[in-house]
Write a structure and sequence with these properties.
Strand content: 15-25%
Structural class: alpha/beta
Largest sheet: 6 strands, mixed
Order of helices and strands: EEEHEHEHEEEHHHHHEHEHHE
Helix content: 40-55%
Distance between the termini: 45 Å
């Protein structure tokens, strides 16, 4: 009989637990987002770990209640083992290791970004390889070719800031709350995306198809361009009037860059199927631009906003895959912030 898997996610500032059933259905799912970081404009690692420690027991209980089962009815426990904030990771993984030992259940370590890959499949059974995957979050921006689960070819990644980090930093420049992705996108709706000609880094130049420069991304220069535009608008007294234009123009630059890089991968691999994962994948303009670029013959897979954010259900789903592969943690296993992406290789060239 197929197992019931409990998944625990504490890599950053969401305390989340998901229960995935034998048919990969979500039986119970709770996400507690920490608001203690808003006043600081970013995640404070020590506070994040304390919040996980304070709330994880209750989040587990609520997810199990929603699933209508007790902890003893879980067949395996999966937990994010990395990457992430080391203190936050240790809280969730330590809880999972202790529970697995006490219950005599297997413990399955999960890579956070692989979990994001699996998230869309919880809602769309067609979200299966092969596909080109664009994982865009606050900490990572990865472009991969996925011919099958567990085998991943890294085509490109960010050279500096992650896309989500750039959204948060620009949102702060515009006086928006943290996390900044949704507030910035909301503000951008009333702005002109062509008002500012912000750069699209690494799209023009001498890079050749198939090379790292052809697929890699950079957001620090774009962020600096927005900073300079903000300072100029503040100096001439037009900042408030142009906030929406700044937001819309920045967002358009990020979307153009991400879509162009993904389509380069589609062209090379010949695979017109793209999966968007990570928190930034919930961005509507990104989704719409990707659908348009793919055309009627292409296919776009994505999660609902709830499963695009960090969550325990995606950890349980990835854990189920790794469990089926026979991958179980040793009793002394621990989390690590630099955990390698399993099955990932960088293409030659």
């Amino acid at each position: 009989m197929s197992p019931i898997v409990l998944g625990i996610e504490t890599s950053c500032d969401e305390t989340s637990v998901g229960v995935v059933g034998p048919d990969l259905e979500i039986l119970g799912h709770v996400i507690l987002s920490q608001d203690v970081h808003e006043v600081y404009g970013g995640v404070v690692p020590e506070l994040a770990a304390r919040q996980h420690l304070a709330h994880l027991d209750r989040v587990v209980d609520r997810a199990l209640d929603d699933a209508g089962i007790g902890l003893g009815e879980v067949d395996a426990i999966a937990a994010t083992a990395g990457p992430g904030l080391v203190g936050a990771l240790l809280v969730g993984f330590g809880w999972a290791r202790s529970a697995a030992l006490a219950l005599g259940r297997p413990l399955v370590p999960v890579h956070h970004m692989e979990a994001h890959l699996f998230a869309p499949s919880l809602e769309d059974p067609d979200a299966e390889p092969p596909f080109v995957a664009l994982l865009v979050s606050g900490g990572h921006t990865l472009l991969m070719h996925v011919p099958e689960w567990g085998r991943y070819t890294l085509l490109g990644e960010t050279r500096d800031d992650a896309a989500g980090e750039a959204f948060d930093k620009v949102a702060k420049l515009l006086g928006l709350p943290y996390p900044g992705g949704r507030p910035l996108s909301d503000l951008a709706r009333s702005g002109d995306p062509a008002a500012f000609d912000f750069p699209r880094p690494m799209l023009r130049g001498t890079a050749a198809p198939g090379t790292a420069d052809w697929y890699d991304m950079s957001f620090s220069g774009l962020k600096t361009a927005v900073l300079l535009a903000v300072r100029e608008a503040e100096a001439d007294g037009t900042f408030e009037a142009r906030r929406a234009d700044l937001a819309a123009s920045f967002q358009a630059a990020v979307v153009d860059l991400l879509v162009a890089k993904a389509m380069r991968a589609v062209d090379e691999t010949g695979c017109p199927r793209v999966l968007l994962g990570g928190g930034v994948s919930a961005n509507r303009p990104l989704q719409e631009a990707m659908r348009t670029a793919l055309g009627p013959e292409g296919r776009l897979f994505r999660s609902s906003p709830r499963l695009a954010m960090d969550n325990g259900a995606m950890v349980a789903r990835a854990g189920r895959f790794r469990l089926d592969c026979g991958e179980v943690a040793a009793p002394d296993a621990t989390a690590r912030p630099d955990l390698p992406f399993p099955g990932l290789s960088r293409r030659a060239g």
